[in-house]
Amino acid sequence: MSISSSLNAGVMGLAANASRLASISDNIANSATIGYKQSEVDFSAMVLNQGQTGYSAGGVSSRSYKNVDAEGALINTGNSTDIAVDGRGMLPVTDSNGVTASASARTLMLTPTGSFTPNDQGFMSTLSGLYLMGWPADASGNIPSVSRNSAVGLQPVNVAANQFVASPTTNINLGVNLPSSATEAGAAGSPFDLPVEYFNSLGSSETLTLSFSPTVPGAGASNAWTVSVNDSANPGAPVASFTIDFNTGLTNGGTVGTVTGGAGAAYDAATGEITINAAHGPVSLYVGTAGSRDGLTQLDAAFSPTSVTKNGSPISELQSIEIDDKGMLEAVYESGLRRTLYQIPVADVPNMNGLKSQGDQAYSLSRDSGEVYFWDSGTGAVGTTQGFTLMESTTDIAAELTDLIETQRAYSTNAKIVQTVDEMLQETTNLKR
């Protein structure tokens, strides 16, 4: 019994060390593979019931697993959509079937890093066929309320529909000084025109022309102006008009006093904005709140548009896709406009090493891993998403070569046990002769 158990233990030792050799071979072969997680083999002693007068060898068993918890070094690249998680957590991805499958039938996989580029259909994918997933943003760039413990709300990231964009102008800030002398008795009363370019919803350039006409009194100074707004997209009569009376006190002289909305214009005293109806839709003109000096002013100086700013942009072509450390995937256009397309969450599970390897540095959930939870990048226990970055293999070549030598010696020793047991059994057989 003891001799046969020794033979069995030796054979099991050969098998266990062969498994360890296989994992070492994999690790060394993938030492340059981006995102590769080192394979490990654990040995466990197997114990049989032992008697008082003899000993039976139980042998050894081996269990292999991926050390997914280990984090590889991050390297900088020149590709903005090379993405890695700096810290704990993984990126959600799916396979090619998941692109067309319904949300409930889509395969969820996780990967620590990936070099994603748009394919011929606009989906962000790696060369190995992993498709990046995220929560789509609305037209304003906001992420709606989503489920954190389910992948149902995640969608394959597609940038094809965002190749061109036009952002209409909705706000214009007027930093303009009007000459106080123009409202004094005897002044010429000539209007001052201010053309302001704006963009409609199609990305076309139009012009709003604001005509500031001073009120000239018979004596003294009126400090009052009438403003009419003409739109090049709707020529003819002004689209709006309003009046402004400026303060003349010692502390607030030259600041906006009273604003009265006229035809096609409504003034909000709380925000200092006048809303007019341009040809493409409503536009807010910031003229300033009462007593403020950051909008229109009336000082003893020349007519001066010191700061006229607006939002919106003309039609522009997609230049690049970038991701920030908050997981926001943004489209960057030639005009400089940035638009949030998706939020890429960072996935976490209770037991990272319990994830099941699917190849191509992707992993799926298992009973051992526990349920997934999707965090915002950089919150909770997870790290941050990093663009222009890939994660290197976690293989330590020096350590693997050391383990290789140890495994070779252990294998040779177990082979010697098998050889010795064979010789002892041969001797036992010879006793009958």
TrEMBL record:
Q: Does the keyword Translocase apply?
A: no
InterPro entries for this protein: Falgellar_hook_FlgE_sf, Flagellar_basal_body_rod_CS, Flagellar_FlgE/F/G, Flg_bb/hook_C_dom, FlgE/F/G-like
Keyword flag Cell cycle: no
**Predominant localisation class:** other
> Which PROSITE patterns is this protein grouped with?
FLAGELLA_BB_ROD (PS00588)
Residues of the Flagellar basal-body/hook protein C-terminal domain: 392-431
Give the record's GO biological process terms.
Answer: bacterial-type flagellum-dependent swarming motility
* Sorted UniProt keywords: Bacterial flagellum, Cell projection, Cilium, Flagellum
| Cellular-component GO terms for this entry | bacterial-type flagellum basal body; bacterial-type flagellum hook; cytosol
* PANTHER family to which the protein is assigned, alphabetical: FLAGELLAR HOOK PROTEIN FLGE, FLAGELLAR PROTEIN
As for what it does, the entry says: A flexible structure which links the flagellar filament to the drive apparatus in the basal body.
- UniProt protein name: Flagellar hook protein FlgE
Q: Which gene encodes it?
A: flgE
